[in-house]
Amino acid sequence: MSGLPDVLNVKPMASIDTMNVDTNILDPIVINSGFARFVLERKGILDAGSTFSISAHPVVAGDDQCWLPVKTGAHALIKRAVLKVGTKVISSSDDYGYYQTMRRAFKTCEEKGQKDSVKVGSLDNMCPDEQGTGLYQLKDVRYPTVAAGAVPAFLRLRNDPALGPVFQIKLSDLFPMMRNMMLPLYLIDTQVSIELTFNTQTANQTGRMAVFSSAYAGDTSMSIGLNNVQFLADYLTYQDERMDATAKLVMSDRGLSIPYEDTVLTSSNIPAATGGNIPAGATVRRVQVTRDLGLSGRNVRAVVLHDSSDVVNPLVGVYGAQAYDVPDEYNYRINDQLVYSRDVVNEQRKQNQLSDVFGTNINCLNAEYSKNGQTDRQTPPHAVNNHMISTNTLNGVNQQVLEAQCHFEGVDLTTDPLVQVGSGTLVGQKPIESLRTIYQTANDNHNRELRYFALVERAMVLKGGQVMVSA
User: How is residue 282 annotated by DSSP?
Assistant: First the structure.
């Protein structure tokens, strides 16, 4: 984003300048149990660090017995977010909780424990267990006894919206475009709005918005604390010379072109084996899975896959991407060419390819990423026989359920090591083909939900106060 004016770039300016920050607390103009809409004021530059406040509460019972999914936190409360200028959709995030769960796996332990634990309500740092056995346990929880952990009181959800914790979600987390730029609201003549669609969790569900203590057997329905949903908008203004220079670009014949990154979601599924195809004993069933990703004509920077089982994890909720007992294999065909000369099957290489997408190493245990080293590789079903996470509990839930829940996969499609604007791969008329081979066993045969998040390049042009966006 080096072509942006300094005042719109999230990077530090080359020279010191006077900046005024005007923070407004905006209430939604429309809000109900499933939706909220905010309208932004037409002034200054919208800071990427602006935040939304939000809370969740057990509806009937479960007071003090539930908390947010440990790896997702408050991101689990939002299903979809849309940034609009007038009726034009500038950026959108679908199945937001799943995508943000993947992104959070690349944060440092310090950020997870010292920031997100308080602001987002997550609990996903690991450390050696209290017993000194060489196994791992959750770190940022209380341990009244060496084998039994408890969720800190300040993270437990309450019936009363006035008592329960209120969490914050940054604007730059909701929309990928806001990680690299700030929006000049004072130069846009059309109304700018943000729409949030909330997740729902009914009485017979768990793990979508919150997870519960093992001893709890009551109503698990959840609601959003409507009075706590607000937008803390930071509007920035600089000296007149800088603001006027950006305005001149917008009023010029060519206008101001702003390239940015957006996500496109493609959802699919893999059904479990049924009837005579159900594997039994040592049988391993090989299944080839081909999926088309409709990204024709787009510049694609990367594709990341969240592959989730229909078994709801009691700590991670629905947001876990459980690894297979027998490692899956994958490849991609783009513009009639395979990305890899041979399919990717080695778990360490999968981690490396995924890290290339996000530009840093994934920050989770090997035991959280895959079942490599935990399964019996001498027998065909690869049954788990060597746990690496302790049986210590969290509010009665065995922490071993955290094993192999971060098995995300990705392919980096940038053509420039500096990842400059335009470095994505241009997809021709044919869609991208995802080519996978999975292995179903007697202990690993579940329905799977596939979510392919494509990181695509788009462009927005501000000209004379009007906004035009590419597809």
Answer: T
Which CATH fold would you assign to the domain 6-469? Adenovirus Type 2 Hexon; domain 4 (2.70.9)
Show pLDDT as tens, one digit a residue, over the chain (471 residues): 456 888 888 777 766 678 899 999 999 999 999 999 999 999 999 999 999 999 999 998 899 999 999 999 999 999 999 999 999 999 999 999 999 999 999 999 999 999 999 999 999 999 999 899 999 999 999 999 999 999 999 999 999 999 889 999 999 999 999 988 899 999 999 999 999 999 999 998 999 999 999 999 999 999 999 999 999 999 999 888 889 999 999 999 999 999 999 999 999 999 999 999 999 999 999 999 999 999 999 999 999 999 999 999 999 999 999 999 999 999 999 999 999 999 999 999 999 999 999 999 999 999 999 999 899 888 888 989 999 999 999 999 999 999 999 999 999 999 887 666 678 999 999 999 999 999 999 999 999 999 999 999 999 999 999 999 987
Query: Using CA atoms, how far apart are residues 202 and 62, in angstroms rounded to an integer?
Result: 13
Question: What CA–CA distances, in Å, run from 101 to 63, 195, 305, 405, 423?
Answer: 25, 21, 12, 11, 26
Q: Do residues 403 and 390 make contact, with C-beta atoms less than 8 angstroms apart?
A: no
In this structure, how many other beta carbons lie within 10 angstroms of the beta carbon of residue 268?
15
In Å, the largest CA–CA distance within the chain is: 74
Which residue type occupies 424? Answer: G
Report residue 448: phi and psi, to 5°. Answer: -125, 135
Q: Are 99 and 80 in contact (CB under 8 A)?
A: no
CA angle 204, 210, 216 (to 5 degrees): 60
